[in-house]
Amino acid sequence: MGTELDWGQIQQDLENTNTLDELSGVAFRLRAMLGIEHLTYHWVDGAGDQYGCTTYSDTWEERYRDKNYHRIDPVILGCFQRFHPVDWKSLDWSGKVAKAFLQDAQSHGISNQGYSIPIRGPNGQFALFTVNHSCDDETWQQFISTYGRELILIAHYINRKALEFEKERQPESPRGLSPREIDAITLLALGYSRAQVAHSLSISEHTLRVYIESARSKLGAQNTTHAIATALSRGLIVV
């Protein structure tokens, strides 16, 4: 399940998207790269409108919307209370409503393993990035161990693109971090060294230092650790 990801190609593919259909195409290619059955980006806005892209069947997508399942989905309810990625099996599926939902989902091809990354963007935005597959627990944990960090970065990039070409879905954002500053702070928050961050972003360490100092200034942070904590608390980065 999965191969070594070409992160440069993934970044390029995402940067070149300008519509939801193009973002959906990237989702299908990512699914193939990861060797999994499904991949989803799901954003429910303040009005209850649902938006995103998925490799789930059209039948399940339509049923999910028609039934307003986002109001009872244990994944959404559980992730809304968390900031870190969530393995579906750690959620509460014991209730009657949750069990009925799970049975319906599985009858529409939803697999037994799931991993969802909560995304908190500007102005209270909440979205989820999810990967879904059928396998045993040991295989799934190995997959998450191998790709966990990359999945968080992919979630961050997909959400950023969605915000770029669907600005009418959110109020005007105050001046914040630039995309490159967000990338740098996100990678540092994930535990990457400065050398690793520079390599991942294909920039020099000097240029990276400029991004970090600029981010610190905008956030009013005393140091890099303070900048990371502030960015996290404001929902500017996802870890």
From TrEMBL:
Q: Which Pfam families match?
A: Autoind_bind, GerE
Matching CDD domains, A to Z?
LuxR_C_like (cd06170)
Keyword flag Nucleus: no
Which InterPro entries is this protein grouped with?
A: Sig_transdc_resp-reg_C-effctor, TF_LuxR_autoind-bd_dom, TF_LuxR_autoind-bd_dom_sf, Tscrpt_reg_LuxR_C, WH-like_DNA-bd_sf
The alphabetical list of record keywords is: DNA-binding, Transcription, Transcription regulation
Q: Give start and end of each HTH luxR-type domain.
A: 170-235
Q: Which PANTHER family match?
A: DNA-BINDING TRANSCRIPTIONAL ACTIVATOR DEVR_DOSR, HTH LUXR-TYPE DOMAIN-CONTAINING PROTEIN
Question: Which protein are we looking at?
Answer: LuxR family transcriptional regulator
| Organism annotation | Ruegeria haliotis
